[in-house]
Design goal:
The protein is mainly alpha-helical and 61 residues long. It has a domain of 34 residues. It is built from one helix and no strands.
Length: 61
């Protein structure tokens, strides 16, 4: 009887753990400056004149 309760409890725990979202959260930085497009690497706001991302340093182009 105790084994049955343990097995059912473990099964229920696995079902609950499997139902949570596994999508990663996006790290988006918000600034007051108008942005043209976000950086393709870190999604920080960028300007058309930028040669590299001010947040992660990746070069554009």
């Amino acid at each position: 009887m105790l084994e049955t309760v343990i097995v059912i409890s473990l099964f229920a725990a696995l079902l609950l753990a499997g139902s949570s979202s596994t999508e990663p959260a996006l790290d988006v930085r918000v600034s007051d400056a108008p942005a043209d497009l976000p950086c393709p690497w870190c999604l920080a706001p960028t300007q058309e004149k930028d040669a590299q991302c001010s947040a992660c340093g990746q070069e554009f182009g």
